[in-house]
Amino acid sequence: MAAEDLPSEFDVVILGTGLAESVVAAACSRVGQRVLHLDRRSYYAANWASFTFNGLLSWIQQHQEEPQPEEVQDWSSLLEEGEELIYLSNTDSAPVSNVQVFCFASEEDEEEEAPNTTEKERGRGADEEETVTEVSEEKSVSDSKEEETEEKGEETADRQKEEEATQTREEEPDTGESCRSAAPNQSEPTRKKISYTQLVKEGRRFNIDLVSKLMYSRGSLVDLLIKSNVSRYAEFKNVTRILTYRHGNVEQVPCSRADVFASRQLSVVEKRKLMRFLTSCAEETEEQQAYNGRPYLEFLRDQQLGDNLQHFLLHSIAMATEDTHTEAGLTSTRHFLRCLGRYGNTPFLFPVYGLGEIPQCFCRMCAVFGGIYCLRHSVHCLLVDKETNRCKAVIDSRGQRIGCSHFVVEDGYVAAEQKRLATPTRYISRVILITDGSILPSDSDQQVSMVTVPPIEAGSPAVKMVELCPSTMTCMPGTCLVHLTCQSVGSAYEDLSPVVTRMFRMPESHDRAGD
Predict the structure, then answer these.
(1) DSSP 8-class letter at 295
(2) How many Cα neighbours within 13 Å face the side chain of 376?
(3) Mean pLDDT for the chain overall
(4) 3-class secondary-structure state, position 157
(5) What is the structure's pLDDT at 325?
(6) How deeply is 424 buried, as exposed, middle or buried, from its count of CB atoms within 10 A (0-12, 13-18, 19+)?
(7) pTM higher than 0.70 for the full model?
(8) Are 40 and 377 contacting, i.e. CB atoms less than 8 angstroms apart?
(9) Which of 76-90, 218-232, 347-361 has the lowest mean pLDDT?
(10) Is residue 84's pLDDT more than 70?
(11) Of 67, 230, 351, 436, which one has the greatest count of Cβ atoms within 10 A?
(12) Looking only at Cα atoms, what is the longest distance across the chain?
C-alpha cells in the first residue's frame, strides 16, 4: 500500500515484523482491531528473516558500511494541547558483530574443490564459504538483520499465497539405517565440484536463516501455530535423525524404540538399560528427588549406565552439560520423550523454506483479517498524553500523524537511554556453512539432522548443529546448509573454528583473515 494512502486512525500501530510483533499483529487483527504494521526494512521477519544466497551477500556488504545518521526533524507543529513528543531511534541497534566470510570453493567451475568442508559462513558459500558472526541476543539465537532485496520479500509472499500447505505434518520416513559412526575426515566418492560462480547463479534456491532453531513437536510455538490455524500457511519437515560427535566420530543417537533395538552401537544389555531408564523417567520418583541440586551426570552414573548411554542421554536427549542439575536434566529428558512420535521418529520440526516463514505466516493472517502492511516505512516519534502517559498518535517517516490507541515496537527501535529496564545481553557465536555433502552420509540424501557436539576441551562451549538438505528448500541440490551455534566464550572464530576443523575437511593452507 502506498504510504500517502494510509488512513489516519488505527487501533494498533506495530513497528517491526519480527516474530513477537507478527504474533501480536495477527492476534489483534483476528479480534477485529484495525492494525497498521510497519517496518523500515525492505523485508519481513526482522532478525528471523531468511535470505537467498545473493541477498545474504548484499546484507553483509550493507552491514559492514557505516550507517548514515538521519537528521532529527522537529515535529512539534503536529502536537496538540497536553501532548509531548518521544523520539524513536532512527538507526538499528545491530544484534550482530564481527561478521566474516571465507570462501573455499574455486571461482570457476573447473578448479579446485572444497568437498564436504567449509567453515563459518555468513555470506558466501560454505562448501566454500565461511562466515563467522558473534551475536548479541536477547530473546533468541538470532544472527543478524539481513537486508534482503525487495524482490525476495515479494517472492516469499507470492510463494505463501500459492501454496496451501498442510499442517506441521511433513514427516520424513525413517531410513531404518542402523546407527553407525563415520570418521569426519573419511574421504568420499568423487562428486562434481561446486564453484562459487555456481552458488551465485543458483543463489535464489537458498533460504539462509538468521536464526537457527528447531521446534519441539509439542512445544509452545507448534501449539500456537495449530491453535491459531496459522499452520495452514506453512509446511514442515520432521528432523529425521539426531547425531552426536564422540571420540572423533559422528554417531546416530537411538531415540525411538525402533531406533534402540535397531542400533548396532549398543549391546543387548545396553538396549535394555536404556529402555528401562527412559520408561522410569516418565514420572518423578523419590529417588530422583533425592538428587535435586546435584549434577545430572552423577545421577546417570548411579543408574549403572555405561559411558555410551550417559553420553547419549546427557548431550543428545537432555541436551545438558555436566554441570546441569538433575531436576533440570530430567525435565528436559521428559519433554524430549513427550515430543517423540507426534510427527516422526524425532521430537523436532523444521519449516520448509526456513524459519523466516513463521513470522510471515502470522503477517499473512493479520492481512487476511484487514491488517495494513507497509515496508520501508517507519515511525519517527510518538505523541503521548502528559496526564495518562498513553500513546495517542505516531508520526511516520513521511510526517503524517496517525492516531492510535496502542503502539507496539520492536526492541531495536528504542534507544538504550529510553528503556526503563536494561535487557540483559548475552552473546552467541554463529557459523553458517554451505557444504557439498553430509557429515554422516547415508543411503538417503534427504536427511535433516540435529547434531550435538560436547565441549571439545575444558572451557570450550557445547555446540548445537543443524544440517539441512535440499528437500527443506533451503539449499540447492548437491549441497547441505549447516548452522552451528554456541554460547560465546571468545570470538565466534575462536569458539567454533575447532569444531568446524574437526568435523569438516578443509584446505590446510587457509589462513584466517582477521578476527
Answers:
(1) B
(2) 9
(3) 81
(4) helix
(5) 94
(6) exposed
(7) yes
(8) yes
(9) 76-90
(10) yes
(11) 351
(12) 80
d(CA 226, CA 461): 35
Cα 253 to Cα 242: distance, rounded to the nearest angstrom = 6
- Measured CA to CA, the distance from residue 399 to residue 3 in angstroms comes to 11
pLDDT above 80 (res 5): no
DSSP alpha helix (H) spans, 192-281: 196-201, 220-227, 257-262, 268-280
Within 10 angstroms of residue 202's Cβ, the number of other Cβ atoms is 18
Q: Which residue(s) pair with 252 in the sheet?
A: 243
Helix locations, 164-320, DSSP H? 196-201, 220-227, 257-262, 268-280, 286-289, 296-302, 307-311
Comparing C-alpha atoms, which of 476, 450, 473 is closest to residue 245? 450
* pLDDT tens column, 133-160: 444 343 333 333 333 333 444 444 444 4
Q: Which residues of 81-100 are buried (b: 16+ CB within 10 A; e: fewer)?
A: eeeeeeebebebeebbebbb
Q: 330 with 296: CB under 8 angstroms?
A: yes
pLDDT at 508 over 70: no
Number of other CB atoms surrounding residue 418 within 10 Å? 11
Instruction: For strands 463-468 and 426-435, give the pairing.
Output: unpaired
pLDDT for res 7 = 92
Among candidate residues 163, 60, 241, the one with its CA nearest the CA of residue 473: 163
- Output 205 or 124, whichever has higher pLDDT: 205
Angle subtended by helix axes 19-30 and 357-368, to nearest 10: 20
Is the Cβ–Cβ distance between 38 and 374 less than 8 Å?
Answer: yes
Nearest to 484, CA basis, from 474, 473, 476, 492: 492
In 3D space, the residue among 420, 492, 488, 503 whose CA is nearest the CA of residue 456 turns out to be 503
Q: Is the pLDDT of residue 295 over 60?
A: yes
Q: Which residues pair with 375 in a beta bridge?
A: 39
CB 450 within 8 A of CB 348: yes
**DSSP-assigned beta bridge partners for residue 250:** 182, 245
Spatial separation of the C-alpha atoms in residues 81 and 145, rounded to whole Å: 39
Instruction: Return the beta strands (E) in 354-462 as ranges.
Output: 372-375, 379-385, 391-396, 401-403, 406-409, 426-435, 449-453
d(C-alpha 22, C-alpha 263), whole Å? 43
Asked whether residue 384 carries a pLDDT value surpassing 70, the answer given is yes
